[in-house]
TrEMBL record:
Limits of the Glucosamine/galactosamine-6-phosphate isomerase domain: 25-220
GO biological process: carbohydrate metabolic process; glucosamine catabolic process; N-acetylglucosamine catabolic process; N-acetylneuraminate catabolic process
Gene: nagB
Molecular-function GO terms, alphabetical: glucosamine-6-phosphate deaminase activity; identical protein binding
Pathway as given in its UniProt record: Amino-sugar metabolism; N-acetylneuraminate degradation; D-fructose 6-phosphate from N-acetylneuraminate: step 5/5
Protein name per the record: Glucosamine-6-phosphate deaminase
Chemical reaction(s) catalysed: alpha-D-glucosamine 6-phosphate + H2O = beta-D-fructose 6-phosphate + NH4(+)
Amino acid sequence: MEIIILDTPEEVGLLAADVMARYVEQGATLGLATGSTPVGAYRELVRRHKEEGLSFANCRAFLLDEYIGLGPDHPQSYHATIRRELTDHIDIEDALVQSPNGLDPRHAHDYDRAITAAGGIDVQLLGVGTDGHIGFNEPGSSLASGTRVKTLHPRTIQDNARFFDSIDDVPHHVVTQGLATIGRARHLLLLATGIVKAEAVEALCEGPVSALCPASVLQYHPHATVIVDQQAASQLENAEYYRYAFQCKPEWQEI
Ligand code: F6R
């Protein structure tokens, strides 16, 4: 796992966009996250599309998760969110931007088959929850799980209430890619910014691999990159080494 510590959330977004753009140029299958963390990276990708001609025409995309009970037209569904924040502003074909079906969760497993049929995900962008979740694999999730229904942890409901008019409007259930589904992506790119993520970042990078911190499965992945800002890195014991290793990184070695 490569851990990259940058000064600001803006720098995290720019570096993430650099990595994603490399895949976009190859016509890759992209794994997309929603939430606040990737917004800076998406903004930069949209800018590169509009100002520098970065084309997504040969790409397709799979979302990580979806709320149960919110249809694609609901503004807080992840289907609508990713269109508003990214895919409506680039030249990716809308039918090739897929998300789990929050209105018919009984067929959640079909999502894994769709990803496999598309040749798998080349790069999966991830945020992390304050409780260590990735996708919506809450603490206690099976490390071998596929796409399925999960109940949100009360802490996640509280964290996500900011996107809704009231905490009572936050759905309690979701369909999420499982930890094994996420682990099959060829490159995992996890971003975290802000002091609220410091504890989760320490647990996922330096703690034991444990269902209690689902994001710690990244430690088993052959190509996982974690990009964090100073605040999110503030509890990392080995931070000095990560900074040193990134400074010494040979130019020919890609992230
Ligand atoms: C969203 C997702 C979640 C978020 C996480 C962090 O698709 O899968 O795991 O990445 O909850 O959310 P933010 O970025 O809003 O702090």
